[in-house]
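Re: weekly structure request thread

Next one in the queue (375 aa):
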Amino acid sequence: MRKLFSLMIIIVLVYFARPLWEEPVGDYVDLSFLDPVDNAIDSFIGKADVTTALDEAKEFTARFASQLQALVLTDADSMPEAVGKPELSETDSLFAIHNVTLGMSKEEAQVKVGLPLRLMKNEYGTDWHSYHTDYQNYVLLAYDQNGAVNGMFTNQDIISSTEGITMNSDKEEVREKLGVPLKSLQKGNVQYILDTRDEYDVFKRGSLYITVFYDIHEENTVTALQVIHEDLEKQRKEIYAAPDDDLREGYEYLLFELTNSARIQRELPLLKWDGQTMLTARKHSEDMAEQAYFSHTNKEGKSPFERMSDDGISFFVAGENLAYGQYSSIFAHEGLMNSAGHRENIVKPDFGYLGIGAAFNDEKQPFYTANFFNR
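Done, posted below.
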């Protein structure tokens, strides 16, 4: 606790001294990661409930420390220290991720996974809490109003199941054990047909909605798992979430995290977030959403590389991924990984930086632009 409090004091002092160092440092370092700090610090000031303020401060400190760590690792080719997988216990639940199960309290879960490094708004109107160590043992958890886990996701080999399903299971085995996948989802009076393209299955087992993603390049073995309680699923009134700035930012950062989670599993250097390139990517996503097209070349005939150069982004190698119409960043990422060309960008060793921009059309469908590069 003393170390945590000391770190909080240091962060606050550095923050309030920001006017003295921000301009000279900003010439060399992308400081966009500091944007959420204003709101976070303001939220701590004047809190009547000290316990609530301390809990929020703990999560904020953990997230801010993660951003500082990313800032210090300026060498794009550096590899983080390897971290072992957790010892998975037998579970009485259909699925456990990192030994966390639905219904577990936030306190119990965080004993197993630590403090969250980032909170990202999701399509259910709540937040994904992101847990990992340099993207190793990557877990997303969502909590209900009582602080119980009601959603979880991973794309790493930290799954246990009463059905014996693992990342080595293939589509045939999963369907044999979980039954017939859903063909549609009912939202209000509308029935939405699931366009799975055989790349994922959605199952309804009791009160759980289970989405199992498959890697078509790895013999249709399991590549990711999402488990959602039906109460959380009911919070999503339509198949696409109502867009706002928080959702856009949540989608952008989540796609970035999933990209790094995929890279670290292949022993590839982690990508650094680039705020300037994010703005370039956002402009292209907004343009596609507003003008109803989907292409790497915009209506003015400019390529991704020309758009990046126009915005003053220097690079010696670059690439672009586009996605459109998926229900969330999780579905977008898994779809990109099943596309050979997009997958190549995600796992390309030469890249060191990534900026992702999202936008929504009038039908609430998300457009994603991901610009990879190295300088």
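The CA atoms of residues 2 and 163 lie 44 Å apart. The chain has a mean pLDDT of 88.
Next request, please.
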